[in-house]
Amino acid sequence: MAHTEIAHEALALPRALGRASDPQPPAAEASSPWPIFRSHARSIVPGVVTCLVILITIELAVFRSGFFISELQVSSPDFPAAKLALAQRSADARVLYVGDSTILTGVAPAEVSARCACGPGFNGGFAAATPWLTSAMTKRLLEYEHPALVVIGLAPWDVASGNTFNDSELAHEILTPSELGALDVHVDIGASIDEAFASIVSAYGERLLIKEWIASLMPQQRYDEGQRGYYAVPGSATTANQLAAEVARMKVVHPGVPSIDSPGVLVTRSLIANLRARGIVVAVLVPPLHPAAYDQNGAYLEGAEVVIRDLAREQGAPLIDCRSATSVDDFRDLLHLRESGALKLSTCVGEQIRALIGG
Questions:
Q1: How far apart are CA 237 and CA 233, in angstroms?
Q2: Where are the domains of the chain?
C-alpha cells in the first residue's frame, strides 16, 4: 500500500520536478569551449590579431632585419651560437682559426694579425669540439666569413683510433636534423618540429642568444669583441693531483691509439678537401700541452705527433708548431693557456703565418 502511494505521489509531481533527481549525462555543449569563444568572438578576434601583428612586427623589425645580431652582446664566446653571431660581425676576417678549447684559449687573432701582416682574424674554436663538430662549425662560419687561410687546430686526441662521433647537445646546436641523420643519429619528430618552429619564430630560435644577451648586462660580464673570438678562461688547476686527474680523464674519454686512419683524421681530410675546393689555403696547428701531459702520457702524445705531421705532409698543409714558445708557467691547467701563454703562442703563430704567406 505504501509503495502504491509513493508511486502515485511521483506521478502527481510536475514532470520537470519528477525528472530532476534522475541522473542525466551532461550536455555536449557544456564541455566544449567553442560556445564561449563564439559568444566572445568580437573581443577575442581583435586581441588575437593584435598579438599576431605585434609578433610579426618584432620578427621583421628585430630579427629578420639584422638588428638583433647587430646589437647583440654576449658574456662568453664559448658556445657555437655565440661564435656564429660574433662571426656575422667579423666578416672582414682573412684568417680563420678552428678547433676545440685549445684554440679558443690559445690563439688571440688580434695578436697574430699584428705579427703576420695577413689581415684580421677570427677564432672559431669552442670547448668540446670534435673533428665532426669542427668541420660543421667551419662550414657554418664560411657562410659569414671569406678567409684566405683557415688554420685547423688538431689536438692529439683528435687522431685516436677509438674517437667516434657522439651525439650531444653541442651537436644539436650546430647540426641540422638531416645532418645528424647522415651521421646515423636517430632524430625524433619532435626535433624536426622544433627546428621548423625555430626557423619561423626567431625569438624561439635565438633563445640561447637572448639568454646570453641578458647575462651580458650584468656588471663586468660583457665580452670584449675586440678579442675576435679568443677567450681567456679564468682560474687555475695546476696542482699535481689536478693534472694527474685530467690525464686520467683524457685517457678514458679518448680511447685507442693514434692512427692515420682514425675516424677523426678521415673527417679532417674531408674538411681540408672542402676548403681547398673553395680556394682557401689550409694550415694545421699543433696546440701546446702542459709538460705533465708528456710526463704521464708521453708514448701516446709522441705517436699522435707523428700522425699529425704525417697528415699535414700527406695533405701538403703547412704545420704550425709553436709549442716551444710557451713555458710551464703559461698554463692554467693541463690543456689550456693563461692569457700570457696565449700572447706568446699567438706571436709565434703570427710569425709563422707571415713566413708562410711570404710577408
A1: 11
A2: 2-56, 90-183+225-357
Question: Strand 149-153's sheet: what is its strand order?
Answer: 121-123, 95-98, 149-153, 281-286, 319-321
Burial class (CB in 10 A: 0-12, 13-18, 19+), 309: middle
Segments in the chain forming alpha helices (H): 2-12, 15-18, 34-39, 41-58, 67-71, 80-88, 101-104, 109-116, 131-141, 169-174, 177-182, 189-200, 202-205, 207-216, 240-253, 263-277, 291-315, 339-357
Contact between 130 and 160 (Cβ < 8 Å): no
Q: Residue holding cell 519528477?
A: 18
The SS3 call for residue 275 is helix
**What is the Cα–Cα distance from 150 to 351, expressed in whole angstroms?**
16
Contact assessment for residue 246 and residue 291, using Cβ atoms and an 8 Å cutoff: no
What DSSP character marks residue 318?
P
Question: What are 294-305's pLDDT values in tens digits?
Answer: 999 999 999 999
Taking 60 as the threshold, does the pLDDT of residue 11 lie above it? no
Q: Look up the CATH superfamily of 90-183+225-357.
A: SGNH hydrolase (3.40.50.1110)
Amino acid at 120: P
At 1, the pLDDT band (50, 70, 90 cuts) reads very low
DSSP state, residue 160: B
